[in-house]
Amino acid sequence: MTKRHCQMKHDQKQTLIKILLSFVTLGYCLVMPVVDLNSTHLFHPDWSLHARLHLVWSVTSFTLIGWYCFFLLWFSDISFNIRVNVVTAIGLAINFGFLMSAFTKPLYGGELADEISGVPDLQGGYDANLIFVCFAVCIVFLAIWLQRRKSVG
Predict the structure, then answer these.
(1) HSE on the CB side for 76, CA within 13 Å?
(2) Maximum distance among all alpha carbons in the chain?
(3) Confidence at residue 5, expressed as pLDDT on a 0 to 100 scale
(4) I need a surface site. Which of 2, 14, 136, 140 has the fewest CB within 10 A?
(5) Residue 86's closest CA among 17, 27, 30?
(6) Separation of alpha carbons 131 and 128, rounded Å
(7) How many CB atoms are located within 10 Å of the residue 71 CB?
(8) By the 8 A CB rule, do 24 and 136 touch?
């Protein structure tokens, strides 16, 4: 194989990693605001004013952090490995934060779904958030594995 051919493979791998991490970032940067800034969460009449403040704070923070991750992935001239390490650390922190809140819900009386306020489980009793977050964590680990793997050539 020529050096140019190996470089193309390396570039393809980097592009795939950026696409995978962009998908994960979309989850907390764009999907979360759509899902949470509506009548089932932020504008739900039973939510306290203070809980609304915390929701807007977390959604805004995750969105801003997500836009920074997009910048790092696609536009920054910092070393690719450093950019990927930062974005994967952020993605894992945000998604593991959700998993920790899900697993510790008995300690604070939380629930993944709420039939009364309009956030039901999926068919079969599965929670959409939990499924998406577990999938996102797997994608982040796939990106880490690809990053660590030697390029062809």
Answers:
(1) 17
(2) 65
(3) 54
(4) 2
(5) 17
(6) 5
(7) 12
(8) yes
The mean per-residue pLDDT over the stretch 38-55 comes to: 91
CB atoms within 10 A of CB 28: 25
Task: Tell me if residue 114 falls in helix, strand or coil.
Answer: strand
Q: Which amino acid is at 1?
A: M
CA angle 32–92–18, rounded 5-degree value: 80
Residue type, 63: T
CA dist 34 to 15, 27, 43, 45, Å? 27, 10, 12, 18
List of residues 6+ apart from 41 with CB closer than 8 A: 35, 47, 55, 119
Terminal Cα-to-Cα distance of the chain (whole angstroms) = 7
Nearest-angstrom CA–CA distance, 56 and 50: 10
What integer is the mean pLDDT of 117-136? 83
